Amino acid sequence: MAEAYLELGSNLGDREAYLARALEALGAWPDITIRRTSRVYRSSAWGVLEQPDFLNLCVQIDTELDPFDLLQACKMVEVELGRQERARWGPREIDVDILMMDDVDIETPGLTIPHARLSQRRFVLEPLAEIAPDREFDGLTISRLADALREDAPEQVCEVDPDATAHVEELLRRGAGIATEQT
Length: 183
Fold this sequence. Notes:
Blueprint: E1 2-10, H1 15-28, E2 32-37, E3 41-43, E4 54-63, H2 67-80, E5 95-101, E6 106-107, E7 112-113, H3 122-131, E8 136-137, E9 140-141, H4 142-152, E10 158-160, H5 162-174, E11 181-182
Parallel strand pairs: 2-11
Antiparallel strand pairs: 1-4, 1-5, 2-4, 3-4, 3-10, 6-7, 8-9
Helix pairs in contact: 1-5, 3-4
């Protein structure tokens, strides 16, 4: 059984519903068990700046899937929820990225684990630090990396959104429901 961390993001349509539906779909996937989810964070766009703000969260899972099968599951969830292919780093209905997976180190054209830009993005580090503060990346803890990026990149706005968090939790309660441990 492997431990992995995923990042979910949305900045089009009913963002909270996309996040909740993605969590439900991942939780229903064979060989994936959701262990913890972060709160929902509102963040400014990264890369292509002229687009709506994102809602992001991170999730810790246990999985029997290998990294490539996990990537396939993430992509299938995106397609199931109606993600349309657009410009790189552009707006999206839902995005599901693998951030880390045990001690896996892979760099292929289609998959890089740990995620190539993990340490450069507050919208990843802030929610990841909430659920895995002591997990190490490049010799530093995730919480330490988040603290450093908060100081080094204040232009990257990323804050907990209590209303969006409550809305996602309510949608999950009303939906099929999955077992998660909210921090």
